Fold this sequence. Notes:
Blueprint: H1 2-8, E1 20-22, H2 24-32, H3 34-41, H4 51-72, H5 75-80, H6 83-102, H7 109-128, H8 130-134, E2 139-150, E3 159-171, E4 176-185, H9 191-194, H10 197-213, E5 221-229, H11 239-242, E6 245-248, H12 254-271, E7 272-273, E8 276-277, H13 288-291
Parallel strand pairs: 1-3, 4-5
Antiparallel strand pairs: 2-3, 3-4, 5-6, 7-8
Helix pairs in contact: 2-3, 2-10, 4-6, 4-7, 6-7, 10-12
Amino acid sequence: MILENIQNTVVPKMDYEKYKMVSYTQLSLWLSCPHKWKLMYIDKLKQPPNIHLAFGSAMHETLQEYLDLMYNKSIKAADEFPIHEDFQQRFLKMYKDYKEQIGSNFSTPKEIAEFVNDGLDILDFFIERRQMHFTKRGTRLLGVEMPILTPPHEDHPNIMLYGKLDLVFYDEDLKKVSIWDIKTSTRGWGKWDKEDKIKMAQMVLYKKYFAEQYNIPVEEIDCKYFIVKRKIPKNPKYPASASRIQYYVPSSGKTTINRVTRDLHAFIDDCFKDDTYNMKEYTKTPSDKACKWCPFNDKPELCDKKATN
């Protein structure tokens, strides 16, 4: 029944003339600082590209391409895939495209070479340990970048939640779906990352609305983060520290789903009026955590860092 429901579901394309789109990224920005969300989505001030974004996007696409070949064609086809060249070409092209967008370099040749080498090291580790992670019999890869597009708030029927799921597997023995999100990290996720409710909300949203979109009981869906690390210690104290692959399974039970759903509804209620953007002053929530990586941190004309109620 689960496979039939997924195979028979056609997700519509987004009609931007009729609907407004929201995403996990928008929700996470609003939860961090509503004023930052307003600058980026109402005022259309773009976050400048950075090398981490180019690296993460390229690594996502290369791993997805390899796994799609392995599961949906053959291991031989995956082994023949030039995975190192593919990643390097994608990464350098993304860097070039971002550079053209802003009209200048945002990194150095030394740093670019370091990121390329880190990526190749990740891929070597991934290939060498493929059997540990991806060869369970009876597991099918149902999709790469599987879409969800659904109205999440009944009071705002023209607001659509849009997302793409990195990897969706089906375990034929357990009769369960598993949603994986690929993350790149410098040294992996620590306690702070795992306790970050905003970061964890992504998979909770995907689980809830994937279940609704494809008519699957939410209890039959698991989710996890698949994290690849650029750096590992030279003399790791524990075997896990030496691994470039890390998993994390977030809490996604009924209580957590309800909390994240309330957050999403509060975001939509705050930011939309008559199904268009709510043109008002948005709350500023400055903090060391929120402001550290904010692209408007050094622009007092856009944000004075003074908290508002």
